[in-house]
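Write out this protein's structure.
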Amino acid sequence: MHLLNPNMARTTPPPVMEARRWLEGVTFSSKQPLINVSQAAPVDPPPVALREAIAQAALEDDSAHIYGPVLGLPELRSEVAAQWARIYDGKVTEEQVAITSGCNQAFAATIATLATPGDEIILPTPWYFNHKMWLDMSGIAAVPLLTGEGLLPDPDEAARLITRKTRAIVLVTPNNPGGVEYPAQILRAFYELCAAKGIALIVDETYRDFDSRTGAPHDLFTSDWDDTLIQLYSFSKAYRLTGHRIGAMIASPARLAQAEKFLDTVAICPNQLGQRAALWGMRNLGDWLGEQRTEILDRKAAIVEGFPALADNDWKLRGTGAYFAYVKHPFDIHSEELAQKMVRKIGVLCLPGTMFVPANDRWGRTELRIAFANIDRSGIAKLFARLEKLKF
């Protein structure tokens, strides 16, 4: 290949796709079928009622098959604003909501409005790899903010990393990959830091619907927030719409006007059927979503309850929540090598910590991410039984 953008060349391959290649040539027996805990997305389709609503829209709504508004269906934007104002007991208007082709696109659009090559964005580590990948291919420096034992970012440490090139701090809560839920006071401290420094606070709440806490997870929408705060959200996890690619960007109308340029250029408009599905889900699936949350929280409880057996073998649970358990393994082996060997030895596919940290970060070599979105309490028990037997 003679011509290649050097920023693209420096960007790592997609981690989930890379991990899937580890399955090539491996045969799994009926006694030990593959346990795939590599991807944080539901594989089941939406509930039947939602699929019926999608089918009805496809058959009866002619406008679902043509271009729509770049910033999304007005009805969906209005519904998001109304529900957000209620959930957060805050102030959110339709003009502060944009619908995007998935949450990753919301992040890309946000960064496009904020930063140019050579600028800096602060990311707590372990970070969400697609955030890092987008910054790399855009020529924007990802500045790692190391987290401690509890995987919680420290606003004071972040303050020391801010330079004249810093454009934003990114927080993901509940966290991917760590699973931890950031306390409201930490989010408030980061908001005040960013406001004081004149930079943006980007809060990715893709997994908000599976937060174990009751009530609003923070109070950032209760004041005049949109000079500083940009919130990202995904409908994919809540309503199993991963293939429809529907997300949201909540920000000032002025910023959304700039984001519209980006969104129009890369997709013109979000998926029309997916938007109608998200709107129908928001209006009709509250109880169902509550049941899904209860199931995910039960899986989190199963992780916590079952982990002492692994702890006896010197495993350590660093964080758990939403779809994730982030663990430290006890072996004198690099986590990437370990993850590949686990496929063949015990039929488990997960991601190594090296996919979530800078290349020189020593912690990544000892850590693994387990995504339990698609294994229930019984599956978690089977996973732990295999991990208990793992020896090197």
